[in-house]
Write a structure and sequence with these properties.
five-stranded parallel beta sheet; FAD/NAD(P)-binding domain; 3 domains; alpha/beta; 17% strand
């Protein structure tokens, strides 16, 4: 602990952001680099706790607390304060293959578990993490490190999202020949097509993928295993396979009028927008445009926020985000104590931008959609809602009931459903014959990651359901370890 009084001397400072109104005019990254001196001060706020709850991820009441990849957070915080950036980078990469991804797109459960956060704003861990890796790239310290030998074993990794990339990186380090199959035209999974360009620029995904290629990993795009690449060939060509295909089956809203045109899943909206942007800077027109439309986003989570930020850049006419929950308070409730993730009111980047353009926060709270109404051409024109309240039922479970007299009609020509996912798509998994659990995810125990099919492992959202980038990296690394053990009889992977 290089600065024992650092938490007393320095205030928390988040990563600086561009002006919310100005940044809606482009697709550039909405944050700015944190000056090194500021990163150093933020590192000084870390107290190097005897029990660093920030770096040990676990589930408490169904929500992640601390870092699932067990990042050596106090160590690299102190190294940044000491200006030992290269050593900080080494510590960072020791537990996390892709700190640039988590530094930009992880909600930072580490900060929710920071001891300083008990009675002060927590250490800006995620911002320090990003500062380290970006300096590492800028200084040329991040270089390809191919394995010294090859085992002769061949492993297929199905899916190139964070779980697949982490799994491939670790298996390659162990000396195996790794092929990563991706059904889309670009690598990265939801890192590329699920997170907008201004939040996680694609060139940063490409930068990391290029390193992995230089380390010896083979990537195969536009190839769907079970369709473009037969399962028989997969089993003939590879000694093992790890399924990291994500959980892309959308959760739907099955109410009257759902069949109307103009109602889309959020991920389709985001995917098409990014693809068109990267392909042609939107000149091809192959995307769902919000320009000039009254847009309603149903869902209050991160994906909904990404839809806000994208719609406002399209120059929509109006923008509203429905959140089925009541507005949260600014401080923790008694039943949400530290080190649980603080369930509090937050204003994210997309809400800031919508407020800058339209003059107010776009969210409407405790709102449930009851039906959609269309025009004579079968296109949505209205969204009907009613307010709801949460209560504890006779079984002690939380439930919702409608509030009479709160019915409302909203004008809308574009509706985006951002209410999550219900599990992985089933086709390929059924072909392969892997067992599914009662949540419609692949049945494979955490820790072993083995399916019922010999030599087939599963990791990430395809196994655990919709979750965080940092959990995907955790599972990809751990599944690689167990796959290596299966292939070699023992493993040295962490």
């Amino acid at each position: 602990m290089g600065k024992p009084t650092g938490f007393m001397e320095y205030e928390r400072e988040p990563r600086p952001e561009r002006d919310p109104f100005e940044r809606t005019k482009d697709w550039e990254e909405y944050t700015l680099p944190m000056p090194e001196e500021k990163a150093k001060q933020q590192g000084a706020r870390c107290m190097d706790c005897g029990i660093p709850t920030c770096q040990t991820g676990e589930m408490i009441n169904g929500i992640t607390s601390g870092c699932p990849v067990y990042h050596l957070i106090p160590e690299w915080n102190d190294l940044v304060y000491q200006e030992q950036w290269q050593e900080a980078l080494q510590r960072e990469h020791q537990m996390n293959n892709f700190p640039e991804f988590t530094g930009m797109a992880c909600p930072a459960p580490c900060e929710g578990a920071c001891v300083l956060g008990i009675n002060e704003p927590p250490v800006a861990i995620r911002n320090i993490e990003l500062s380290i890796i970006e300096k590492g790239f800028a200084e040329g310290w991040v270089k390809p490190e191919p394995p010294a030998f090859r085992t002769g074993k061949r492993v297929a990794v199905i899916g190139s999202g964070p779980a697949g990339l982490a799994c491939a990186a670790q298996l390659n380090k162990a000396g195996h020949h790794v092929n990563v199959f991706e059904r889309h035209d670009r690598l990265g999974g939801l890192l590329t097509y699920g997170i907008p360009e201004m939040k996680l620029p694609y060139h940063k995904v490409e930068r990391r993928v290029k390193l992995l290629q230089e380390e010896g990993i083979t990537f195969v795009t536009n190839t769907e295993v079970g369709k473009d690449y037969p399962l028989e060939k997969l089993q003939q060509d590879f000694d093992a396979a790890v399924i990291c295909g994500g959980a892309a089956k959308h959760r739907d809203l099955k109410i009257e009028g759902r069949e109307l045109k103009g109602i889309h899943f959020a991920m389709d909206f985001l995917h098409q927008n990014t693809k068109s942007l990267l392909d042609s800077n939107h000149k091809d027109g192959n995307f769902i445009s919000a320009k000039g439309k009254d847009v309603i986003v149903i869902g209050g989570g991160d994906t909904g926020t990404d839809c806000l930020a994208t719609s406002v850049r399209h120059q929509c006419k109006s923008l509203t985000q429905f959140d089925i929950y009541h507005k949260k308070g600014d401080v923790r409730k008694e039943d949400n104590p530290w080190p649980q993730w603080p369930i509090i009111h937050r204003i994210e980047y997309g809400q800031k931008e919508a407020a800058a353009v339209f003059g107010k926060d776009p969210r409407a709270y405790a709102v449930m959609t009851t039906k959609f109404v269309g025009d004579k051409n079968g296109h949505v024109k209205e969204v009907h809602t009613i307010n709801v309240e949460t209560f504890i039922d006779k079984n002690g479970q939380r439930a919702r009931r409608e509030v009479p007299g709160t019915e409302k009609i909203w004008q809308a020509q574009l509706v985006l459903l951002a209410i999550g996912f219900s599990g992985p798509e089933q086709g390929f998994l059924k072909q392969l014959g892997v067992e599914m659990d009662n949540r419609s995810t692949v049945k494979a125990d955490y820790g072993t990651f083995t399916t019922n099919v010999e030599g087939i492992f599963a990791a990430g959202d395809v196994r655990r359901g919709q979750s965080l980038i940092v959990w995907a990296i955790n599972e990809g690394r751990a599944a690689a370890r167990e796959c290596d053990r299966y292939l070699m009889g023992e493993t040295e992977l962490p």
